[in-house]
Amino acid sequence: DVQLQASGGGLVQAGGSVRLSCAASGGTFDDYAIGWFRQAPGKEREDIACISSSDGSTFINYSVKDRFTISYDNAENTVYLQMWRLKPEDTGVYYCAARKGRPQAVVMAGCAGRIMDTWGKGTQVTVSS
Predict the structure, then answer these.
(1) Residue 109 and residue 60: Cα distance in Å, rounded?
(2) Phi and psi of 90, rounded to 5°?
(3) Which of 35, 71, 95, 111 sits in a 20 to 30 Å window from 55, CA-based?
(4) Digits of tens for pLDDT over the chain (129 positions)?
(5) φ and ψ at 87, to 5 degrees?
(6) CA nearest 106: which of 29, 19, 27?
(7) Contact 56/104 with Cβ under 8 angstroms?
(8) Quick one: how far is CA 124 from the chain centroid?
(9) Nearest to 8 by CA among 126, 129, 112
């Protein structure tokens, strides 16, 4: 299985934007569903977005649907989470995770964190008001 490295977090003012990257090493994202998940202080982990490497289909949590997008760069073997119009409640540690096999079905099911096989270390995003 691939190893995942998330990066791109930092401190940003409310209304700003950030792009997170999830890079694969030790393999490619071929036949994978790759997702982003958020752990906010004192809250349960939240499924944010995911994408199928096979056909590019995506799932975006309704709570961020108008502000976040997810994309996959096959050449770079990297998945991106672009976040716009950030709010303080977007603060948290963002993790990327992946599951190999049937990526389209995984995306259609919403890429729940509990079914993902491989997790990377998170990257902190802090949105100041």
Answers:
(1) 11
(2) -85, -5
(3) 95
(4) 799 999 999 999 999 999 999 999 999 999 999 999 999 999 999 999 999 999 999 999 999 999 999 999 999 999 999 999 999 999 999 999 999 999 999 999 888 989 999 999 999 999 999
(5) -120, 155
(6) 29
(7) no
(8) 13
(9) 126
